[in-house]
Every structure is written in C-alpha cells, then in structure tokens.
Amino acid sequence: TIVLNIGTTALEIAKNLRNVEDLTVLTNSIPILNQLANTRLNVYSLGGKLRCNELALCGSLAFKALNDFCVDKAFIGAGGVTLENGITDHNLDSAELCSAIAKRSRQTILVADSSKFGKDASVIIGPLSSVETIITDSGISEEYAEGVRQAGIELIIVDI
Known about the structure:
Layout: E1 2-4, H1 8-15, E2 24-27, H2 30-36, E3 42-45, E4 49-51, E5 56-58, H3 60-66, E6 71-76, E7 80-82, E8 86-89, H4 92-104, E9 105-111, E10 123-126, E11 133-137, H5 142-150, E12 154-158
Parallel strand pairs: 1-2, 1-6, 2-3, 6-9, 9-11, 11-12
Antiparallel strand pairs: 4-5, 7-8, 8-10
Helix pairs in contact: 1-2
C-alpha cells in the first residue's frame, strides 16, 4: 500500500505504476486518480474538500480515510526544502495532510526536483528527518546533497 500525494512529480510516479499488479494506491490528487483509472491497481481517493487550484482533496475527510489504512510507503512532494526548516509547502491544508501521511507510513520518500532545494515555502511539513529517502534530479547543489547525506537520509539522484 502506497500513498501518492499531490504534485507533478507524484503524477510522474503514477504514470509508471499503470502496469503494476497487486498494489493499493491512496491519493488525494484528482490528476493521479484519473491517471490510474482503468488499471488493475486498487485505487482509493482520500476524499475531502476540493482545492480547485491544485485539483487536490484535503481536510478532515482525507485524514479519516488515511487512518483506515496501513501504509507501507508514501511519496510526498514539497514546495521547498531547506536544511534549516526542512520540508515546506505553500498551503496549510496540504502541509498538514502531508505531515499526517508521513507519520502514517512505514517509509516516507520525498520526491522533489532540484529547484525546490534552498527555498522555503510558507508552511512547514516537517524536518528533513521525517523522511527516509529523498529522490531528486542531478541539479541539486553539492551543499544540499551533502547536507541530506549528513542527516542520515538516503539520497537518490536521477538524471533528467
């Protein structure tokens, strides 16, 4: 059982899951729900109030649905990532749900392109230590790559 949070990077993950079998996917992203429609996956919407600008679902209904599942892995995005403030987002509702997803999961993986590093968004999701793995692209600075590694977090850098 995995959770895919909102965002373009999570949507790219979803595109690569279409042919996977025996997988349950939870998401609060309408684009991801659409992407995974008509697959063999077990897909669940976390439900909640629609945030039209992100096509995301959030609020108390999403929290209640999340708590009905045992989550193996969560893939979360971010609006910003700094060594000082950790993982941040632009919206309080999204940040709170993202934090709850990280706490509910056995393993939390941050997927963020390198442009997010060194920038803070307005709301804190959690410290870097709230994730076990970070996946980003080769544009990440050496300073941030080293900071992530020194924090004991697995860093996977992919070429794009």
